[in-house]
Amino acid sequence: MARLVLVGLPGTGKTTVARELGMHWGVEVIDTDDALASVLGRTVPDFLREAGEEEFRRREYDVLLEALARDAVVATGGGGVTLPEARASLASARTYWLDCADDEILARVAEGDRPLLGDDPKQALTRLRAQREPWYQEVSRVRIDTSGSLDEVVAQVLSEVKGEDE
After folding, report:
1. Count of domains forming the chain
2. What is the pLDDT, as a whole number, of residue 29?
3. What is the rounded distance in angstroms from the CA atom of residue 12 to the CA atom of residue 39?
């Protein structure tokens, strides 16, 4: 089973934090978006635009299940919590919710290809937060603010893990 799973909106640092935690523990890091792109043979944004969100979420869930079965740190896509079956799987894993202010998220994703943020990223992010925040709360043991430095965020995650293991 996955050592730790990170969920949260796009741009909250899931992949970056996962890489640091994977190095700390000496375990594999699985970014479900990267794993899905590898399976699909194309980028996640391209597949999302071509196949639609429903098909994308189904395929994303298959990749999530494979990742959860491994001793790894798993960084999910921002919408990895949208399917009820995904939430059930995440709730039974050691899942932490990474989050920060919307302005910071928007600055972090400004140069990326984010189809779900569309032409008005601020409005889209507000909508995604309203929709997904209850799901992140449902599946997560703790919410971690990622507005600090990477070292601070990783230290907070490790402290939370240690507290659970004691």
Report:
1. 1
2. 98
3. 24
Q: Is 71 among the domain residues?
A: yes
Domain with 101 in it: 4-148
Cα distances from 14 to residues 26, 41, 104, 123, 134, in angstroms, run 17, 23, 14, 22, 18
pLDDT at residue 97, as a whole number: 97
**CA 22/CA 20 separation, integer angstroms:** 5
Low-confidence ranges of the chain (pLDDT < 50): none
Evaluate whether residue 156 is within a structural domain.
no
The pairing of beta strand 28-31 with beta strand 72-75: parallel
CATH number, position 30: 3.40.50.300
pTM of the predicted structure, to 2 decimals: 0.92
Q: What is the pLDDT of residue 119?
A: 65
Would you say 77 and 9 are in contact if contact means Cβ atoms under 8 Å apart?
A: no
